[in-house]
Design goal:
It contains 15 helices and six strands. By secondary structure, it is α+β, with helices and mostly antiparallel strands.
Length: about 300
Amino acid sequence: MGTTDRFSRDEVQRILGLSPKQLDYWDRLELVSARKDEGNRFYDFRDLIALRTVKQLIEQGIPANRLRRALAALREKLSQVQAPLTELRVLSDGKDVIVEREGARLEPLTGQFVMNFDTRKLDEEVQVISERSADEWFALALDYEAERANRKTWAEAINAYENALQLDPGRTDALINCGTLYYEQGNFEKASECYRRAIERDTECGLAHSNLGSVLEEMGQLEEARRHLRLAVRLEPHHPDARYNLALICEKLGAFDEAREHWQSYVQLDPSSPWSDYARQRLASSESARSGSRR
């Protein structure tokens, strides 16, 4: 089980309402570039937040080239800041790029302070988006999830996901991520509710079936758990976690032949994982039991 931590170009375009040309242009300007891993190109949640900020600023009238120059100036003036779009609050006054830092706002190209919190009214001088869209709530939830070591942010992440779902009830990604946070908190009822809602929206979502199966196992509902995990491996045959969990449940139910089939598939799909040794042990044990029964 896990939350979404990589986004393809198609997913980014759908979530943020961007076009392929916009992504390519911003990549060329080095505003936000896709990451690479073994030939695959993707964006992570921080990139998603950065892209959302770029989109907002450009919609507020800031040309992309001016934004590029402002970010370059920020990196030069603030050497400790490597990713201004995610590490700082970047805004627009309708004309220039404005950065909020340490209780004041400055214009990056000149380095001049343009506003003091104690003497100017922010709402009158700076254009700030006060109402978030579903996409913005989703991105905010991902930002909170970045601090997974700090469980205090989990409630804020869940709240942000719930706000996104109020605006867009059909977001299976928000339902799955929210369900995973509930699962990690031990709230299996809420987790299963989220996964069931995701399945209602997308009956072909293998991840939702897989995660629901894991939750149902924790709740002792083994037959229903097996049913959903079987659906998960049918929908996504190359998903190793579903195979592993299904093998465990089959053993608990005494379906050892079926368990052996899924252990074998798991080892083939994920041969170097920390859990593959256990899967091999289960296979060896199964083979020994079969040999003994033939004697």
